[in-house]
Write a structure and sequence with these properties.
The complex is a heterodimer of chains A (336) and B (205). Chain A is mainly alpha-helical. Chain A contains twelve helices and two strands; from the N terminus they run αααααααααββααα. In chain A, 61% of the residues lie in helices and 1% in strands. Classes of the chains: A mainly alpha (336), B mainly alpha (205).
Chain lengths: 336, 205
């Protein structure tokens, strides 16, 4: 039967004559035009057109969504890895968002939900920096969307964290010690840097605290120059104070010129905080993250895309050996 | 395990494709109702080859098939505007139904045309198998001609289901709707049709 069926299937390649098809098309169109003018409204036509386009697109993204769903079903998240680095505008981005939503829906533990929301907020920030780094224009719309999505994730995250922290009242010893650390670190820096915004105090305090060893403050004990604790900051007000990290003994720390580098770090710190259930600090961290991403956006709006949009080197050399920007050669400062 | 996933993904993909096809169909139908000419053009481009193929295997002549196909699209436009055949609320089954009726009408008007004979000139099938060498493609053409001739000898009912399933790639449910039969009927019909065709071809050899 199969051979016969195959032969029969070959017949489906028979098509009508192309010339006839097109002349016939015009003929028919002429004939139906004799009918009354269409009585559709633009709105209705648009409403019907969009699902039509979607229906045409479905076969393509369905392949992607199906692949993603299957892997999830299988218990693995490997499929999501493929879409991980996609940003708005990419075909896989749909799958990425779908994957995120699915993950969230399948998670029931509040803390894990918060971890996911944090991750997704981080993703929005990452995507934002990716979109900002694109050289072609037309980004404003996507940037806006990303920023609003980011704010959504942040507020979801915030309410989740508040929910958790209320459910698990715990004495938070770290909260007490933190302000001291902040005070210690910020004083010498304020003296040296001048135009510091409040966030930088958080950054440096955070960097001291952060296990990922991003700052040199722990490593360059001998020089103890506070300037080395400062990664490069770019302020939304437009004045750029670049603090080049002086040669650190380990030479692992590199100069970051991108706000995205900062927000990446903040997210990592936030993750650590969530892990250690330090909810009050975490809430502060969340605000930092919001502000950091907000500055990325403002940077673009103010036309400072030169400074804002660079994929120059991120801070690498974390203790896990993880580079924040996997694609970059991680040893030089480069300007794009 | 992997093959299970592949199978599953194929099933889901086919489901999606079917679903999206049906959605497209419904949307086109609605737009046609609104006298949307763009929709007409889209429907034409989407289905003209299928309808042509279907009719061609019933009437055997290119020109006749072209004429009748033309008429089918015009008629469908008219039917949708005037809400005839209202129980067909999506495009594909409606098109096939109208095409089928059109062929029946055609034979009624010309009783001397024996439905089963295909023009001699039409017996060459252009199978796009350029990769095969000449000898192979010659054999393939012979094969196809044989199958073609076998199809001709089949009873109308049998030939019709075979064409709908293998040449038009419709599934059992769709065929059932077009022929106004039950799915079970269609399955049995298909089985019998294939057996009949097979024995015809075996006799020839």
């Amino acid at each position: 039967m199969n051979e016969l069926e195959q032969k029969l299937s070959k017949f489906k390649e028979i098509k009508a004559d192309a010339a006839w098809k097109s002349s016939n098309r015009s003929l028919l169109l002429g004939q139906i035009s004799m009918a009354d003018e269409p009585r559709y409204s633009w709105l209705k036509a648009l409403a019907l057109e969009l699902p039509f386009q979607f229906a045409k697109a479905v076969p393509h993204s369905a392949t992607v969504v199906v692949a993603v769903l299957l892997v999830l079903l299988g218990g693995g998240f490997a499929g999501l890895q493929a879409s991980e680095n996609s940003k708005p505008g990419d075909t896989l981005y749909v799958a990425k968002i779908a994957g995120e939503k699915t993950q969230l829906a399948l998670t029931f533990d509040d803390k894990k939900k918060a971890q996911l929301s944090l991750e997704f907020a981080g993703n929005r920030a990452k995507e934002l920096s990716q979109v900002l780094n694109e050289e072609q224009g037309g980004q404003e719309e996507r940037v806006e969307k990303l920023v609003s999505k980011f704010r959504q994730e942040i507020s979801t995250l915030r309410s989740q964290v508040e929910k958790i922290s209320q459910a698990e009242p715990k004495a938070d010893p770290k909260l007490a010690s933190k302000p001291e650390e902040k005070a210690l670190e910020s004083t010498p820096e304020t003296a040296l840097e001048g135009d510091l915004e409040a966030e930088t105090e958080y950054f440096s305090a955070g960097s001291v605290k952060d296990d990922n060893g991003i700052s040199t403050s722990e490593q360059s004990a001998e020089t103890a120059a506070p300037v080395q604790t400062e990664p490069t900051e770019v302020f939304a007000s437009g004045s750029e104070i670049e603090i080049a990290a002086s040669a650190s003994p380990t030479a692992e720390i590199l100069v970051a010129e991108s706000k995205a580098g900062d927000s990446e770090r903040i997210f990592k710190e936030a993750e650590a905080l969530l892990e250690s259930e330090d909810y009050s600090t975490l809430l502060n961290k969340i605000s930092e993250a919001e502000e950091a991403v907000g500055r990325m956006d403002t940077g673009l709006v103010k036309g400072e895309s030169e400074e804002a949009s660079t994929t120059a080197v991120y801070i690498v050399g974390t203790s896990t050996g993880e580079s924040l920007d996997p694609g970059d050669p991680a040893t030089t400062t480069s300007d794009k | 395990m992997a093959s299970l996933f592949v199978l599953l993904s194929k099933c889901i993909l086919r489901y999606f494709q079917m679903a999206s096809g049906k959605l497209t169909d419904k949307i086109l139908y609605l737009r046609l109702k609104d006298k949307d000419k763009q929709a007409f053009v889209k429907a034409y481009d989407l289905y003209v080859d299928d309808i042509y193929r279907f009719i061609f295997f019933k009437v055997g002549s290119r020109e006749e098939a072209e004429d009748i196909s033309s008429g089918v699209f015009l008629k469908v436009w008219d039917y949708v505007q005037n809400n005839k055949l209202g129980e067909y609320n999506s495009l594909k089954p409606l098109l096939y139904r109208v095409a089928r009726n059109a062929v029946i009408d055609y034979y009624r008007k010309q009783p001397d045309n024996a439905p089963a004979s295909l023009d001699a000139g039409e017996s060459k099938i252009d199978v796009p198998d350029e990769k095969q060498d000449m000898a192979n493609s010659h054999d393939l053409h012979l094969d196809m001609d044989l199958v073609r001739a076998g199809l001709d000898q089949l009873k109308d009912e049998y030939r019709e289901v075979i064409v709908l399933k293998y040449l038009n790639e419709l599934d059992t449910a769709e065929i059932a709707k077009i022929l106004d039969k039950s799915k079970g009927n269609v399955r049995v019909l298909l089985y019998r049709a294939l057996s009949a065709l097979r024995s015809i071809l075996e006799k020839k050899q």
